[in-house]
Design goal:
Length: 308
């Protein structure tokens, strides 16, 4: 028990370090939302879906937390820069998805600012994370502050909702995610460069060429991780939970820059256990919130003139 407690403490500390900049809705949730907005056909739908994941391109830049905070604010709070930079129909499809993700009036607003059917004062994901923390709190002897634990639990809820979407709303969501990443237009990196290259270069001190290479490398990593996430969701539920729990521990190791100094099995089991509890907590109301979010985002996009 002592060994497990130490393992839990170390893993949670590592997870906390990157969780504050993690997704507000999970990947599969964004895929489902974009797949059910007013698409324009198979080619455009694939680009809309992948574009909808685009704002999370810089989420895991653990080596520079200050830069990470700036880049996250840039892509989530200034998404219209991508729309303004779009020229071709494929770029408009990518930008349409990108803009839909924003946290001001897009999909992420209902995740962590103002839910529609649940968590109306703080967002669905945050409300569920708080409920999970009350139901399954961390052992007090670990010394993890409640606020820190809540940040960790946000990630768990995001995974749980993604699994529930795969189970109950769209069994092909993983396939759609991976296919969209593989089929995304080669124009996307260039679109991001036009939208954010100058701002990133000016803020970071990078040359224009270095900023271009940085954006392209980040998009390439996003594409690769999106394919892997989608492939995990193609499996049965138990396997998907295990694979995504492993991925979460991988991220903890990436932050630390080395393997965790504990058995991976203990870390993965901890995350998986919490995911199952979060799934149980969200099973009755997640679908209503996602449906309401789709309606809300679609209306916002239309009223603000994001039509192509």
């Amino acid at each position: 028990m002592k060994t497990r407690a130490v393992a839990v403490c170390i893993v949670l500390a590592a997870l906390l370090a990157f969780s504050t900049e993690a997704f507000s809705w999970g990947n599969a949730t964004h895929v489902y939302i974009n797949d059910n907005l007013d698409g324009k056909g198979s080619i455009c739908d694939a680009n809309e879906i992948y574009g909808g994941l685009g704002p999370d391109i810089f989420n895991f830049m653990f080596q520079d937390p200050v830069l990470l905070q700036y880049l996250t604010a840039l892509t989530h709070g200034h998404a219209t820069e991508v729309w303004n930079a779009a020229r071709t129909k494929r770029e408009k499809a990518l930008a349409f998805g990108f803009v839909s993700h924003n946290e001001v009036w897009g999909a992420d607003r209902t995740a962590h600012r103002a839910g529609i059917t649940y968590g109306v004062t703080d967002g669905y994901v945050i409300a569920k994370a708080n409920e999970l923390l009350t139901l399954a709190p961390l052992p007090p002897e670990l010394g993890i502050p409640e606020g820190a634990a809540a940040e960790i639990y946000h990630n768990v809820v995001e995974i749980a909702v993604d699994i529930l979407i795969k189970e109950h709303l769209d069994q092909q969501v993983g396939q759609k995610m991976a296919s969209a990443a593989l089929a995304r237009s080669s124009e996307f990196p260039h679109l991001l460069v036009r939208a954010y290259g100058e701002a990133i270069a000016g803020t970071t001190g990078l040359s224009n060429g270095e900023a271009v290479r940085f954006i392209r490398a980040s998009e390439r990593e996003l594409r690769n991780t999106t394919v892997l996430y989608g492939q995990a969701l193609m499996q049965d539920t138990a396997t998907a939970v295990n694979l995504l729990s492993e991925q979460m521990v991988d991220l903890a190791e990436a932050f630390l820059g080395q393997p965790l100094p504990v058995e991976r099995e203990a870390a993965e089991a901890l995350v998986a256990d919490l995911v199952y509890v979060a799934m149980w907590l969200s099973a009755d109301d997640f679908a209503g919130e996602i449906t309401a979010t789709i309606t809300f985002v679609g209306d916002q996009l239309s009223r603000r003139g994001f039509i192509y």
